[in-house]
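Ticket #431: bound-state structure for zinc ion.
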Amino acid sequence: MKEKIIEYIDNNKKWIIDSMMKIISANTINTPPYGNENNGQKIIEKIFKNIGLEIDRFSPDEVSGFKDSKVYLKGRDYTNRDNLVGFIGKGEKKTLIFNGHIDTVPSHVFKWTKTKPFDAKLIDGKIYGLGACDMKGGIISSIFALKTIIDLDILIKGKVIIESVVDEEFGGANGSLACVKRGYTGDFVVIPEPSVMKICISNVSSRLMEIKITGDKGLMYAGTNVEGVNSMLLGAGLIIALKDYENFLNSLKDKHDIYKRIDKPIKFLFSDIKAGEIGPDKILTTPEECLVRIYMMNYPDVNKSKFNDMMLSFLKNYPSIYKYIEDGSVVFSEKHRFIEGGVLDLTVGNNKDFINKIIENGKKLANRELEISAMLGGTDFFAFSNYSNTPVVVLGPGGGNCHAADEYVNLEDLLDLSKIYAGLIYDYCQT
Ligand SMILES: [Zn+2]
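RESOLUTION: The complex was predicted; output attached.
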């Protein structure tokens, strides 16, 4: 039967390419508090219907009790932003869930050169378009896997659930948490976020930190405030100190099982800095305020308060900076939410067997040696690892330019993933 799966997927490549073109053409941009996900859900719903899935479409807001739970991220508006769940199977055996977010970041504003953001193109084995890699490719691969099983007339004795959720970007997670709250549980969840074909059994914790630095103004060499604080220089010093902190966190990796095999598991993204203005009529003056944004990671066991405490205690090594934190000139604030980390414990239940099954299917169906690793960057992993009883892994395609112009996903990865997922469905839903 597994040969038939390979054959079917190789012979029906066109389906996945066409579906990618369609889903990328839909603007599903997330601009908190709003989003446009229903443009994509319309297309996914049609696909679900065509392959014969039962459908549950709902707003995160209408899931009973969810809005009052402590994990609900407040302030988002879910008008035209429905979660879409498709499922099939008799439910007698095991249940597999595939969970992917349909929203994308607004990276259409960048300068695209390969194609337009909503006009997907296949060039040299890469599908370019907004959301191709993060993560419409993963969603379409999981649907293709299920379509393969259905078209090959393989009876699903268990159950397969595909969740196309809203609002993952910008720390959302409400879409996935709403699915958990609605009662979707199973034996395993696979999140096809772009993991470059690695099986990620853990996810780092992360947070987008905004730092506001207030200094003095005017000409520091004229008048009386010659000893003033230049917010831009203080910001620069802080950035260097936080780069040291990133290195420090990487030096701790041996204490964290899966992370020790990754070269530099903790990666900070120094994304934005703003101080002063540049323009023809700009007055020569010291910038009174400097704003810095840094996306920071830490190990999965680090919770929200430890995340901050660790950083602040490290910064005590820099007294010339730390004194400004103490006097309130430097203020840290979080954007969106703290994204919890998570771990799949391989010593519990059938977790290890499941991972072995993925590895086995990787070899058999895609001729790939899949590595076990960890997901670096925030995903909805924690929605399952910390708030449901369903064990979770991330396994998704490789590509590039996520959250940038000319985002792409490798078509071969999508096809291999479909084979691996179909192999898993076959194994799990028969036994
Ligand atoms: Zn993503």
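RESOLUTION NOTES: The domain at 206-333 is CATH 3.30.70.360 (Alpha-Beta Plaits).
TICKET STATUS: resolved
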